[in-house]
Structures are given as structure tokens and as C-alpha cells.
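Incident log, support desk, overnight shift.

02:14 A customer reports that sequence design results differ from what the structure should imply. Their input is reproduced verbatim below. On-call engineer (initials T.W.) acknowledged and began investigating.
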């Protein structure tokens, strides 16, 4: 029984991964071309050094 559950879980994850990635297109090319998925607020924190300062 344990192997059946393991296999069912594996198949489910495989299907979910395909569905999750289906809308992303060529994500590697997007990033190579300078694409960024961060929000302006996140970029501001990163560029100001506040994130590094908060980490100690």
C-alpha cells in the first residue's frame, strides 16, 4: 500500500508541476534579457541596503 501512495503522490506532483510551468513561457530567456519579477518596493529595499542592514 505504501508504494501505491508514493507513486500516486509522485504522479500528482508531476502533473501539478506541468500545470504550474505551463504559463511561464521561456522564463530563462526572460531573465537573460534582463527581465525582473520583483515589485518596485522590493527593488527599493534591495537597492537601499535596508534588507542587508535588517539581516544584521
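02:41 Re-run completed on a clean worker. Output:
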Amino acid at each position: 500500500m505504501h508504494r501505491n501512495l508514493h507513486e500516486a503522490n509522485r504522479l500528482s506532483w508531476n502533473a501539478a508541476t506541468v500545470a504550474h510551468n505551463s504559463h511561464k513561457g521561456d522564463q530563462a530567456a526572460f531573465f537573460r534579457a534582463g527581465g525582473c519579477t520583483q515589485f518596485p518596493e522590493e527593488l527599493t529595499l534591495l537597492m537601499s541596503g535596508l534588507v542587508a542592514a535588517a539581516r544584521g
